[in-house]
């Protein structure tokens, strides 16, 4: 693609994708609110570290106040609770025929479309693991799914071109006509990651812990019931078998849990980004923002989501300093499953 790509939110996800594009000679403009990180990128000190790859690159980089011009392709990679503010900030710089691509967890496409319009919103699903370590340093923990698609599933020239560009980062990137199928799949799988953040266990250990089995199954099924009510055909990835979970098929669920455990055990990113926000960065997470559209959809369909509701409450308590991360907090979530049964 000849036009520059804007990476809005150049942390773990945006920084990694942008670094690959920059290294391959694509013109990249990184935008981030962390001035030291912006300076490092500008100075050519954006380092990708870890088992997947190791290289240092850089590119043009600005904080949002210094942004200018009109851009056709903006990849948004901020946390879900920052989506609205970031989209409002980027909107003046989005060309009339431009697109914002949500490289995020959650159903952020709905928020973005409300601000810049559905025709200027493109969906993406990312499941690779990365951690922002410090300004200019990102751990690329493992490769995993990268999927893009127009919200209405059309194979437009712009999404075909975007797909080709993303292959520079992930050669197996997928172009889909059902992006919401992947996003709801991540909502189901991502619920496990969110629950795991209540404990200090790694994602793999949390999934393998027999004490968490009932919680994981009930939580995933609760989310998938909402997806079913929304009439979304949900896709699996990285060992996650949504159909097996939705059917309540014990053998399929056990096999899926084993695959998800193995997938996560092989990653250098041992804990979820949410756990990292709570335990390492000591800051608010985007759990409530990620689950808001899921819970809202549930209410529209007259469905209850007691486990997701409690998960949001418990994470909120940790964020507020009123609860510690540990087995007791995961037990408190498990208790909801018994009450709901
Ligand atoms: N990390 C991972 O492995 C994965 C993450 N995801 C999803 O990807 C998305 C991005 O996550 P991740 O990269 O981990 O997050 P990071 O916090 O590492 O990166 C986001 C960056 O955007 C910055 N930012 C916040 N608000 C704005 C704004 N208004 N304008 C510009 N920059 C801003 C952040 O600054 P500050 O830190 O100061 O807020 C940070 O530098 C999230 O939705 C996450 O759930 C999906 C799959 C895997
Ligand atoms: C664990 C991971 C990287 C998915 O593989 C993730 O989505 C997260 O940390 O939020």
TrEMBL record:
Highest taxon above the source species: Bacteria
Annotated GO CC locations: cytoplasm
Enzyme class: oxidoreductase
Gene3D superfamilies found in the cross-reference section: N-(1-d-carboxylethyl)-l-norvaline Dehydrogenase, domain 2, NAD(P)-binding Rossmann-like Domain
Record carries keyword Phosphoprotein: no
Species of origin: Teichococcus coralli
Pathway(s) it belongs to: Cofactor biosynthesis; (R)-pantothenate biosynthesis; (R)-pantoate from 3-methyl-2-oxobutanoate: step 2/2
Catalytic activity: (R)-pantoate + NADP(+) = 2-dehydropantoate + NADPH + H(+)
Protein name (record): 2-dehydropantoate 2-reductase
BP-aspect Gene Ontology terms: pantothenate biosynthetic process
Enzyme Commission numbers on file: 1.1.1.169
InterPro entries: 6-PGluconate_DH-like_C_sf, 6PGD_dom2, Ketopantoate_reductase, KPA_reductase, KPR_N, NAD(P)-bd_dom_sf
Recorded family membership: Belongs to the ketopantoate reductase family.
């Amino acid at each position: 693609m000849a036009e520059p790509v804007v990476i809005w939110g150049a942390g773990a996800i945006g920084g990694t994708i942008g670094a690959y594009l920059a290294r391959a000679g694509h013109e990249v403009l990184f935008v981030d609110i962390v001035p030291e990180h912006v300076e490092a990128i500008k100075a050519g000190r954006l380092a990708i570290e870890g088992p997947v790859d190791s290289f240092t690159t850089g590119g043009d980089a600005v904080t949002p106040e210094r942004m200018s011009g009109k851009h056709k392709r903006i990849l948004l990679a901020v946390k879900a609770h920052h989506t609205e503010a970031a989209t409002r900030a980027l909107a003046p710089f989005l060309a009339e025929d431009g697109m914002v691509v949500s490289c995020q967890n959650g159903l952020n496409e709905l928020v973005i479309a409300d601000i810049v319009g559905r025709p200027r919103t493109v969906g993406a699903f990312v499941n690779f693991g990365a951690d922002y370590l410090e300004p200019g340093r990102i751990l690329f923990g493992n490769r995993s799914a990268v999927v893009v698609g127009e919200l209405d599933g059309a194979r437009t020239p712009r999404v075909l071109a975007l797909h080709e560009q993303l292959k520079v980062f992930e050669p197996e990137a997928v172009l889909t006509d059902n992006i919401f199928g992947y996003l709801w799949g991540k909502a189901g799988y991502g619920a496990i990651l969110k629950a795991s953040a209540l404990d200090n266990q790694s994602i793999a250990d949390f999934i393998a812990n027999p004490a968490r089995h009932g919680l994981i199954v009930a939580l995933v099924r609760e989310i998938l019931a909402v997806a079913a009510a929304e009439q979304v055909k949900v896709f699996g990835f990285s060992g996650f078998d949504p159909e097996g979970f939705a059917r309540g098929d014990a053998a399929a669920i056990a096999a899926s849990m084993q695959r998800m455990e193995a997938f996560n055990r092989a990653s250098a990113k041992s804990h979820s980004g949410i756990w990292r926000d709570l335990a390492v960065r000591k800051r608010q997470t985007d759990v409530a923002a990620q689950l808001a559209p899921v819970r809202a959809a549930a209410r529209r369909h007259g469905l209850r989501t007691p486990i997701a509701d409690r998960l949001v409450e418990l994470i909120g308590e940790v964020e507020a300093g009123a609860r510690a991360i540990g087995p007791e907090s995961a037990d408190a979530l498990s208790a909801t499953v018994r009450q709901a049964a």
